[in-house]
Known about the structure:
The protein is built from no helices and 16 strands. By secondary structure, it is mostly beta strands.
Amino acid sequence: MLKFYTTILVIVFTSQVIAQKRLEKSMDASQIDKVIVDGDGMYKIKIITSETNTITLKATIEGETFENLLVTEKRELETITFGLDYSPFFKPENDKLAAHKVIAVELILEIPKKKIVEVVSNLASFRGEGIFKKLKVVLLEGSCSVNSFTGNGLFQTLKGDITIKATSQVMGIAISQYGSVLNELPKYGNFRIEAESKHGDIRLLQTNF
């Protein structure tokens, strides 16, 4: 069972009557091996790894229906899934969370190193950093950028650019159907990443950090 350490909820009203809800939460991750983000409807997703045994979640929700939109968590065995849903009994006029002109959701996660992570979103851009066992990112509209990456990875976008700065242990393959490709990663390594895009540009770069 997940142990919740802290939860902070802040609601801020602006002069334009567009309100904002902020959520901060920490939970024990000692029994978690896989983190999934069902990011449909989210605007920005960021995941960083560190020397920690907890998952720290920070979320900002703003827009017309902010008070009825929730960041959900579902635990199944060693997997935890984060997503979006409306409060019970609330019926939105537009049933699509993807109406980004109405709401904007930003999710930031700090997680332990060497976890399996999967992120899927129809709207969001993704930013990541750190050491992963495996990182899979699939985006339709947004771009993908990962710094100081070590691990195995699969990165796929439809429209957005992909930029991965990986350590010297990582080899990479990059394919873009209509965009440009720059691959500076070695042909051999302890870890392997694949980057694919239909319209976006791809850059696989090596970093010493």
